[in-house]
Amino acid sequence: MAETRSTCPYCGVGCGVVIAHEAGAITGVRGDPDHPANFGRLCTKGSTLHLTATPVLLQTARLHRPMARTQRGAPLAPIGWDTALDRVADRLAATITDHGPDAVGFYLSGQLLTEDYHVFNKLAKGLIGSNNVDTNSRLCMSSAVSGYKSSLGADAPPACYDDLALARTVFITGSNMAWAHPVLFRRLEDARAARPDMKLVVVDPRRTETAAVADLHLAIQPGTDVMLHHAMLHIMLAEGLHDAAWIAAHTNGFEALRERVRDLTPARAARICGVPETDIVQAARWFAGQSTDGGRFPTLSLYCQGLNQSSSGTDKNTTLINLHLTTGQIGQPGAGPLSLTGQPNAMGGREVGGLATLLSGHRDLGNPEHRAEVARLWGVTDVPARPGKAAVQMFEAAADGEIRALWIACTNPAQSLPDQAMVRRALERCEFVVLQEAYRHTATTPYADLVLPASSWGEKDGSVTNSERRISRVRPAIDAPGLARHDWLIARDVAQRLEARLPSRRTPESAGRSMFDFRTPESVWLEHREMTRGRDLDITGLDWAALDRAPAQWPCPQGQTTGTARLYTDGRFVTGDGRARFSAPAPRGPAESCDDDFPLALTSGRLRDQWHGMSRTGTLGRLLAHTPEPALQMHRRDLERRGLTGGDLVRVRTRRGELVLPVQASDELAEAQVHLAMHWGSEVLGGAGSAGVNTLTQPICCPSSGQPELKHSAAQVEAVDLPWRAVAAAWLPESDWVSTREALQALMARQTYASCVPFGREPQGRVGLLLRVAADQPLSADWLSQLQALLKLDAGTVLRYADRHAGQDRAMHLDKAGRLDAFLLSGDTRAASWMLDLLQQDGDAAALGRSLLAASPTSPSPLPARSPQICACLDVSLQRIQDTLGALPEHSADPADRLARLQGELKCGTQCGSCLPKLRTLVQDSLTAKVVVQVAVASAARTSSPRSISPMA
């Protein structure tokens, strides 16, 4: 067995991993103890990476060869690589010749490597002469980019991960860090344990697991962040908590900001934000960090999509940065605004200019000198001055017929972009759609004219940059499956063909040689390195061998032996005069206001164990155990007002579309708010016309950043009566479940509501599939027959009951040992809960006999009902944790001691640690429950003790 060091492909923390592999197969993964981002830790997603790359999944879930359609609507058929590459080059050349270079669009991904990004960017902006190259990083980080550039002069997070251990106050806003960046949250937990005086402030409309452990939770109304920031600054000025000398020496624009916040008092903000005035004051004082001796404790802010995904995303970013500038909380150990990157290489993509409004090396497209520099370095006559289409604009242009060819790489716009009705109209109308993808089952695949198979994690070779500007190597452990190729190599080969098909844009000095003479990822990276020379992100002091030895932070200019941990330590910024710039925007609400027609605020967010569109994580049943099925979360009182209970189906509607979903009571939400996880696309959430969660979200963008307001929509929710329902579940061989799920999607589309999710723990060599269906018409015999055939309910030992007149159809498949391994309930589905428990716990079904077919809502099995999973690594349930805590001795009242005893007994939270925030909450709940019981017992004792009775009694 061999081991290869690489980097995790999920969030922007950038964790190092060690991949175990043998005989061309990945056999395991562990955290790299020497990587400075994670020091060996991994979250649930990272620790299961090897299970997403098993030989079976590489064979069944991945694309192996180029595929093309003869015409729209025809099935994809295999073609050779040369034919595929020629076809791309021919179609792009024809489109450019007939309609101009801006008739072509490139839509890329923050999961591409820096080298992939560089080749695509050069292909679009240098060879073709169009800035129509954008990325799904536009959906997550462009407001952070715009905020940094506006305030500090460059897209450069100034702080680093080590600052977590040095901060006195940590201000988390717009991020459920415990779920979205769990390994970094472990570092925060360590810092709080070592520094009991540290204050944690969390700003979030929901009481997430991050908010639940905060010293102060500001549960603001969605979209009121700018008002909150301004009110905090108002307090800092009123109480003299600002650093006037630092402001005068290092900033511009303070007087306009002072005037802006003059009337934005905490009392006014409290009414608009929906939080107590005293909490706003406390947050401002902790943020300012002023000590009794006149010094200043450091404050670190951490933020993500709650600030970025907004029509005022840039304003939210700049007004947060204002707080740091006002107090001089920047460039110092433990202080600064640190945006948490959503994707593993959103930072690297920005470095090479992989957005429609940027150029390589953090150059500005609108700056003629910068365009001339890039043109000279690439050896082309010019880089066009006209900005390209940002992500949403690009698809709107395709829907309008302006963009006629789209090349999509490593992303799934038919799931992830807002306003899916528009996106799918764009994909249908666009004359030529190329999809460069690793997985065969994404929602975008049916719209592609040509599909190019790409390598993925464990196979790729190159580099990525994480949230703290740290560049890490990505190394291959195995070869890509089938004929799949690296993304940069595919782009290079098309570019070389286009050079022969398009008029040359080369300068006389560079004519006669290819712009794309790249042989290795290192050769691409070296060209990128040269384009950073003299820039704020200068990495000319690094070489490929240095990156192989250890990850490094930029900048690291020539002559410097190590990277730079913190920026702006001298108080000079990347602006014309070296001064930071205050921004003074007026507070604005969300793009959509709630009203009588749409009275609820719909927000979106991540799940703990899922990633983006679930093309990788959705192949593992164990990663769906924590949140097993799609559901709309709603406050209990809002449910009661509508006569709803948990599990009821509702129709949630926005101004763009509607979905039918189960509803779930949530204690995390305020009234008049609903919440839906971002991951549920049409691959999982079916039904007639369903395009997943982003059927509902809005495309209105921040005017400065172009980032859409995915986080908030005005919505309405109403009960929906769909009496004809079915629930089916089955254990399937690992080799069959991907194809079975694809076949089920065709059946799901014929019903009003359907969901299909995997379950189970993979080492048994099988994966479970759970299907739920609701419809306004009886399920046809043909439909049920097809379903039973797919789930192997039409052969072997099958118990059956059918009464088509009453609309009842039940089938139970038992294996040779008498265990239930598949079932279908159609009509009366009330037994689904206990039957699913029986299936998953491998209970003795044969002993139950005909009671299986009776489908009683009460379980005849002695097996206990399955409790919700808390620990994904070891499959530890809530009930086991509560039982163990309840059995601890009376003297164990210290939370740390109780947690240690719990972990010693069940081992939960001892591996990846993603469940630790929840475990700490459960420990505290158990102590609270114990106190309540003790008080009740004491009260009962006082009531029953002898006492004198007055004559009046």
From TrEMBL:
Q: Name one GO biological process term.
A: nitrate assimilation
Q: Which cofactor does it need?
A: Mo-bis(molybdopterin guanine dinucleotide); [4Fe-4S] cluster
Q: Which SUPFAM superfamilies match?
A: ADC-like (SSF50692), Formate dehydrogenase/DMSO reductase, domains 1-3 (SSF53706)
One Gene Ontology molecular-function label = 4 iron, 4 sulfur cluster binding
- GO CC terms, sorted: membrane; oxidoreductase complex
Boundaries of every 4Fe-4S Mo/W bis-MGD-type domain copy: 1-57
Q: Report the superkingdom from the record.
A: Bacteria
User: What keywords appear on the UniProt entry?
Assistant: 4Fe-4S, Iron, Iron-sulfur, Metal-binding, Molybdenum, Nitrate assimilation, Oxidoreductase
List the InterPro entries hit by this protein, alphabetically: Asp_de-COase-like_dom_sf, BFD-like_2Fe2S-bd_dom_sf, CT_Nitrate-R-NapA-like, MoPterin_dinucl-bd_dom, Mopterin_OxRdtase, Mopterin_OxRdtase_4Fe-4S_dom, Mopterin_OxRdtase_prok_CS, Prok_molybdopt-oxidoreductase
The family assignment reads:
Belongs to the prokaryotic molybdopterin-containing oxidoreductase family. NasA/NapA/NarB subfamily.
User: Which PANTHER family has this protein been placed in?
Assistant: NADPH-FE(3+) OXIDOREDUCTASE SUBUNIT ALPHA (PTHR43105:SF9), RESPIRATORY NITRATE REDUCTASE (PTHR43105)
- Protein name listed in UniProt: Assimilatory nitrate reductase (NADH) alpha subunit apoprotein
Organism this protein belongs to: Sphaerotilus mobilis
